[in-house]
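Structure (tokenized):
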């Protein structure tokens, strides 16, 4: 059962790492011009890196695009794995670079931060994200700082109910988030010292380049962050 103390500690962990966003190049919501989702209905200007248009009803294409969300989840889990990875941040960043452009932006509305809609919440307006970070390197550093400050040994992201929409060289991918964050107990078959769960929605904008389909922006809208198990020293 989630206690008031554990909720305070969870919020404290989020607050403690927000200062890091300043050194990571955090872009204020008011200062970032959001590319409208309506761009999917418009013809994109062909640039030197863009490739030919693929058929929007191609099932293989839709599977490829849905896998971009899996790629993100794998990268986040690599950062969450402090037991197997000597360099969790580096391991996760290497995966992120497989599926994100170098200038991709990452916006997060943590649980308790209001958003106007779960899919592609509006970045500029009365309900902006808590922070926006430019580039996968900055996001990997922020994620690593968040997980390490909470003392997690492992993190596992499950994504599903994925919806893919394609229009020419542009696409969107939306999927649900269910992630588990664990601080392990001591000893064989010992209960977890801490297990926390997050639920929400991922919204990705994707573009086809010469190197393949890449994510250009990710929005994370969380609506729940709860402590499921807390024993011994509990959650950080």
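Design, position by position:
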């Amino acid at each position: 059962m989630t206690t008031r103390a554990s909720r305070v500690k969870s919020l404290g962990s989020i607050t403690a790492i927000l200062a890091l966003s300043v050194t990571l190049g955090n872009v204020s919501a008011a200062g970032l011009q959001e590319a409208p989702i309506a761009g999917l209905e418009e013809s994109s200007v062909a640039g030197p890196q863009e490739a030919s248009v693929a058929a929007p009803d191609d099932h293989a294409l839709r599977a490829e695009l849905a896998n971009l969300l899996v790629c993100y989840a794998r990268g986040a889990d690599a950062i969450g794995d402090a037991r197997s990875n000597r360099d969790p941040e580096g391991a996760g960043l290497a995966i992120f670079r497989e599926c994100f452009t170098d200038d991709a932006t990452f916006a997060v509305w943590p649980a308790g931060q209001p958003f106007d809609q779960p899919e592609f919440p509006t970045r500029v307006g009365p309900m902006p994200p808590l922070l926006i970070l430019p580039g996968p390197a900055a996001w990997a550093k922020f994620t690593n700082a968040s997980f390490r400050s909470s003392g997690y040994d492992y993190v596992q992201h499950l994504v599903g109910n994925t919806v893919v929409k394609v229009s020419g060289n542009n696409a969107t991918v939306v999927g649900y988030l269910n992630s588990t964050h664990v601080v392990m107990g001591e000893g064989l078959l010992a209960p977890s010292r801490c297990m926390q769960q997050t639920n929400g929605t991922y919204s990705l904008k994707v573009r086809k380049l010469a190197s393949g389909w890449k994510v250009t922006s990710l929005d994370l809208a969380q609506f729940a962050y709860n402590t499921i198990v807390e024993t011994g020293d509990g959650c950080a």
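Reviewer-requested clarification: The radius of gyration is 18 Å. The longest strand covers residues 212-230.
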